[in-house]
Amino acid sequence: MDIDQLRSFDRIVRDGSFTKAAARLNVTQATISMRMRTLEQHVGGPLFVRGRKVELTERGIAFLPYARRVLSTLVESEEAMRVMDRGRVAIGTLRSLVAPLVTTPVAEFLAEHPHVELDIEEGRHREIAEWLHDRRIDLGVIAWPNLDPLLDPLEPLALFRERAHLVAAPELARAIGPSPTLQRIFEIAPRFVTHLWWQVTPEPILAMQKMARGTSLMTLEPSRALIERGLAIGHLLAPQLAADREFGRLVIIDPVDGPPIDRRSALVAGRPGEPPRPLAADLAARLIARAQTLGILEPARHEPGEGNAFDGDSASEP
């Protein structure tokens, strides 16, 4: 019994004809008939009732699911070997870092490795933690320090720190005035929008929520739209602000009496304690280089899991 015999058997069942099966498989009808005679010898009896319409015998009906299971396994194994030959890398990243951090390194990586299968998934910290736990991804960009009980202690490949600036539309910023205090900001601002960037919301953000006339928790796109229209103020990360500031769409209004707020995240390997595979290590190096270009790369000064809610509870954006 061999694979050609099983493929021929399956094809005859699908087409209901030895002749059509031979044409589909690009062999002669004599070859198909010979394969079926040999297969029937192996299984101990006829698989088909020959006639104007080819039909399965009881033996053929019983044998069909086993034959198809073998063929399905073969297809899966062939695909796995093709992936192995091409190489495969999967990365999961916080949504807020897709555009500034991940896009350029991915484009450069694929230009150099055009046959590699590259999967990118984006989500909140909790989702990425699950993907890391299930070994679905080779690299992850997660909140730092990691507080998720799903994950074992992690040693980051790199740490990132982004300043979160309070921003407003130009007209609203002018109404608030220069050197704004927290009191002045929230006397003028109609609404304060926040994002799910933090595993634990920093105390300064909680204090601002108490001072605001109205608050909303939103994803990035609608909150940015409200801010640009002067209907709200909110924090945006420094890498997200470059174009907005260049074209005058947004103005930084960080309060003079408020502490700076940073959002921290980390690049981690998908298999804790093991170095990334060569292709994953290549992509990781490009991500780290991009972070350095953006000015968000920081030395790994803390041990895994160290930090506090203010300067490390980051990056769980929806």
Sheet having the most strands: 10 strands, mixed
List the uncertain runs.
Answer: 302-318
CATH architecture title of the largest domain = 3-Layer(aba) Sandwich
Task: Indicate how many domains the architecture comprises.
Answer: 3
Helix content: 40-55%
Task: Supply the CATH class of the largest domain.
Answer: Alpha Beta
In percent, how much strand structure appears in the residues? 15-25%
What is the succession of H and E elements? HHHEEHEHEHEEHHEHEHEHEEHEH
Number of helical regions: 13
Distance N to C terminus: 54 Å
CATH topology of the largest domain: D-Maltodextrin-Binding Protein, domain 2
Structural classification? alpha/beta
For the secondary structure, the number of strands is 12
Mean pLDDT: 87
Give the C-alpha Rg.
30 Å
Shape verdict: elongated
Walk me through this protein's architecture.
The structure is a single chain. It is elongated, with a radius of gyration of 30 Å. The chain is α/β, with parallel strands linked by helices and 318 residues long. Helices cover 47% and strands 18% of the residues. The longest helix is centred in the first third of the chain and has 29 residues, at 58-86.
